[in-house]
């Protein structure tokens, strides 16, 4: 049993030494790749993902299994958000190869596609496609959350107008047993071990608001726990949003200082140091 | 796949590109010299969860990541490869004699190439991974490094990811990245002896490199292997009399011949182990003892670019509209055929027929030349810090 729940109740520390409401280290970079319209690299703990966005562009010949869940097809009034996820064989501890038709990957793709299509202003780009390809380099839990965050950052980098950040986070609960109801704590940002062991959900919110954009729960959990988990998750999303926002701002300031982009109007009051 | 991707150039532009590349010296669109590679950024050891990993970014923005993962696998029993599973029956002398026989099998290496937007069973992707693994397995020495004992061996998984969209034919990029990843690959140090179940050292710092380098001595098990480093596959093309290395997508579109040449390196005495397929250059003169491992022709997109058609034979311009009687029509067709077969200045004509043997020989020669491009590339890759 990787997570000893009795040990948790003694010291209130998790397997990796965090408290119940602590996030893992999040490190992100944007504009990592010159050839793409937008790109990002995101680490949440040991989960490492890369995202490359191309478009909005004219839809090319459709190849491969891209999932166009959000928005319409190439001929519609809204841009289609096509998400393609590649989970590298070396990403998990034991090498496990997933084919392109893997149901789990397809579900991740359509979840991300729908979440972003709702946040991006796809109506500005009729008859076009936004291609988002995500590469999973290393997995240690909270995969969907990391993918959503990376995709958001890459879309920001690509300059696609959007309502707000879609920031995602996972939340879980310490106990799986109904009998131990009072002692159960909600947990923020689960790692792989915890995900194997405990009930958890992934939640994504739109910006600073409490509006939930994505809610995925793949495990059995008591209804009484759900509210606490959701509250913790939404709170975590706000923290994640702050981190993403800081990454974007830092990069923006750097680009202005380097002279890559011109200083826009209304930026004078921004602190540039 | 990528070799046949669309190049949005008109026949006139293609002809211009072809003409400027056939000049002496050729003028390349990006101003490089014919043997110059695109500048690149390389790093290794980026993924701690793998046995070895590398990332390379070319200046045009294409980027690849390779991760190598190794697993211990039980060697399958084969009639020519007696297993120890049925112990007891065999006598000790026999065992001692066979003890040092290191064998390899091509099944011990599995290579996958992932290119975003392409299916993994896409013909081009499969061809790419076949080319890369072919070069690696060509001399049969690589798999011997994966031998643990007579009952177990390492199974090596090479996962090659192209992160960026394929802007140019990704073969050189993927090959260089794979090369670096293999150089950075380490396998845990073996603690058990003989044919016992393998037991490994926990200390990762003690893990020897798969390819031991002259500077670092860490490997206990020295396998007699003539190649000291993984192969490198280079993309070479010929336009007219010029040989051009590392072509970009546009240049590849007007190539007469495009070859993928895999080059390995000899170490030590090569005379003891002559193989049939190597074309040795004079030894000990240059820095590296290069040897040819495999050559593949790549169908250049020039075979797929439509030629410019004169208006006379273009039905869209009413070529046959005016011709009422069949006599006149026939004459016109005859005329059209001659204009089509003749080279017209400034009109793109896709090269027809196969590559000339002399051109092929020259291409291979140029790659293997002392102090040539392959030498330079290997030198440059030596400079990458392996951690």
From TrEMBL, chain A:
* Name the UniProt record assigns to this protein: Exoribonuclease phosphorolytic domain-containing protein
The residue ranges flagged as biased composition, category Gly residues, are 66-75
The lineage is: Eukaryota, Fungi, Dikarya, Ascomycota, Pezizomycotina
Q: Name one Pfam family in it.
A: RNase_PH
In the record, the note on similarity to other proteins reads:
Belongs to the RNase PH family.
Q: What one GO molecular function would you report for this record?
A: RNA binding
Q: Which SUPFAM superfamilies match?
A: Ribonuclease PH domain 2-like, Ribosomal protein S5 domain 2-like
**GO CC terms, sorted:** chromatin; cytoplasmic exosome (RNase complex); nuclear exosome (RNase complex); nucleolus
Q: Which organism was this protein described from?
A: Sordaria macrospora
Gene3D superfamilies in UniProt: GHMP Kinase, N-terminal domain
Q: Which residues form the Exoribonuclease phosphorolytic domain?
A: 22-161
Which PANTHER family does the record associate with it?
EXOSOME COMPLEX COMPONENT, EXOSOME COMPLEX COMPONENT RRP41
Task: Show the segment(s) annotated as Disordered.
Answer: 53-76
**Quick one: a GO biological-process term for this protein?**
nuclear polyadenylation-dependent CUT catabolic process
Going by the entry's taxonomy, the superkingdom of the source organism is recorded as Eukaryota
Automatic annotation (TrEMBL), chain B:
**Keyword flag Cytoplasm:** yes
Q: GO CC annotation: what is one?
A: cytoplasmic exosome (RNase complex)
> Could you tell me where the Acidic residues compositional bias lies?
83-95
What molecular function does GO assign, one term? mRNA 3'-UTR AU-rich region binding
Output compositional bias ranges, type Basic and acidic residues: 324-340
Listed InterPro entries = Exosome_comp_Rrp42_subfam (IPR050590), PNPase/RNase_PH_dom_sf (IPR027408), Ribosomal_Su5_D2-typ_SF (IPR020568)
Keywords of this entry: Cytoplasm, Exosome
Biological process per Gene Ontology, one example term: TRAMP-dependent tRNA surveillance pathway
Localisation per UniProt entry? Cytoplasm; Nucleus, Nucleolus
Name the segments for region: Disordered: 77-101, 298-348
Keyword Iron listed? The answer is: no
Q: Where is the composition biased (Low complexity)?
A: 311-323
Q: Which family does it belong to?
A: Belongs to the RNase PH family.
Listed name of the protein = Ribosomal RNA-processing protein 42
Tell me which species this is from: Sordaria macrospora (strain ATCC MYA-333 / DSM 997 / K(L3346) / K-hell)
| Organism phylogeny | Eukaryota, Fungi, Dikarya, Ascomycota, Pezizomycotina
């Amino acid at each position: 049993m990787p997570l000893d729940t009795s040990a948790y109740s003694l010291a209130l520390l998790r397997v990796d030494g965090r408290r119940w409401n602590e996030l893992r280290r999040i490190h992100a970079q944007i504009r990592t790749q010159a050839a793409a319209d937008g790109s990002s690299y995101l680490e949440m703990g040991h989960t490492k993902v890369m995202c490359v966005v191309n478009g909005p562009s004219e839809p090319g010949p459709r190849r491969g299994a891209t999932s166009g869940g959000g928005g319409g097809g190439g001929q519609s009034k809204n841009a289609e958000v096509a998400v393609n996820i590649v989970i590298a064989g070396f990403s998990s501890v034991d090498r496990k190869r997933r084919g392109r038709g893997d149901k789990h990957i397809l579900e991740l793709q359509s979840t991300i596609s729908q979440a972003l299509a709702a946040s991006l202003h796809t109506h500005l780009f009729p008859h076009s496609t936004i291609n988002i390809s995500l590469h999973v380099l290393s997995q240690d839990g909270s995969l969907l959350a990391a993918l959503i965050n990376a995709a958001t950052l890459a879309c920001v980098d690509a300059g696609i107008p959007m309502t707000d950040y879609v920031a995602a986070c996972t939340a879980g609960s310490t106990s799986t047993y109904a009998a131990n109801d009072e002692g159960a704590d909600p947990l923020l940002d689960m790692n792989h071990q915890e995900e194997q062991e405990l009930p958890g959900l992934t939640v994504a919110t739109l910006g600073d608001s409490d509006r939930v954009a994505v809610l995925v729960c793949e495990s059995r959990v008591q209804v009484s726990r759900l509210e606490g988990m959701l509250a913790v998750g939404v709170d975590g999303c706000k923290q994640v949003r702050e981190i993403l926002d800081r990454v974007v701002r830092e990069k923006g300031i750097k680009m202005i200082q380097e002279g890559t982009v011109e200083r826009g109007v209304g930026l004078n009051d921004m602190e540039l140091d | 796949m990528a070799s046949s991707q669309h190049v949005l150039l008109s026949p006139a532009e293609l002809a211009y590109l072809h003409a400027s590349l056939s000049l002496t010296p050729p003028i390349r669109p990006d101003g490089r010299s014919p043997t110059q590679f695109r500048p690149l950024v390389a790093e290794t050891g980026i993924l701690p969860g793998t046995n070895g990993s590398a990332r390379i970014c070319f200046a045009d923005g294409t980027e690849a990541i390779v991760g190598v993962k190794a697993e211990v696998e039980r060697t399958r029993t084969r009639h020519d490869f007696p297993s120890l599973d049925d112990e007891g029956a065999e006598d000790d002398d026999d065992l001692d004699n066979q003890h040092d026989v290191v064998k390899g099998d091509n099944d011990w290496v599995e290579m996958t190439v992932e290119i975003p937007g392409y299916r993994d069973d896409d013909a081009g992707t499969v061809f790419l991974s076949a080319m890369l693994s072919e070069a690696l397995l060509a001399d049969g020495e690589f798999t011997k490094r994966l031998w643990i004992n007579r009952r177990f061996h390492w199974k090596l998984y090479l996962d090659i990811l192209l992160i960026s969209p394929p802007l140019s034919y990704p073969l050189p990029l993927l090959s260089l990245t794979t090369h670096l990843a293999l150089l950075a690959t380490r396998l845990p140090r073996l603690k058990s002896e003989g044919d016992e179940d393998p037991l490994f050292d926990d200390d990762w710092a003690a893990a020897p490199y798969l390819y031991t380098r002259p500077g670092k001595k860490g490997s206990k098990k020295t396998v007699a292997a003539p190649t000291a480093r993984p192969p490198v596959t280079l993309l070479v093309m010929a336009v007219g009399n010029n040989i051009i290395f590392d072509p970009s997508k546009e240049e590849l579109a007007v190539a007469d011949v495009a070859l993928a040449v895999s080059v390995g390196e000899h170490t030590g005495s090569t005379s003891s182990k002559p193989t049939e397929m190597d074309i040795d250059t004079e030894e000990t003169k240059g820095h590296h003892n290069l040897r040819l491992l495999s050559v593949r022709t790549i169908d250049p997109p020039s075979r797929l670019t439509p030629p410019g058609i004169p208006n006379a034979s273009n039905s869209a311009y009413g070529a046959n509209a005016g011709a009422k009687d069949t006599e006149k029509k026939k004459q016109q067709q005859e005329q059209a055929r001659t204009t089509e077969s003749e080279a017209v200045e400034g009109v793109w004509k896709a090269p027809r027929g196969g590559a000339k043997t002399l051109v092929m020989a020259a291409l291979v020669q140029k790659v293997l030349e002392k102090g040539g491009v392959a030498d330079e590339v290997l030198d440059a890759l030596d400079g990458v810090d392996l951690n």
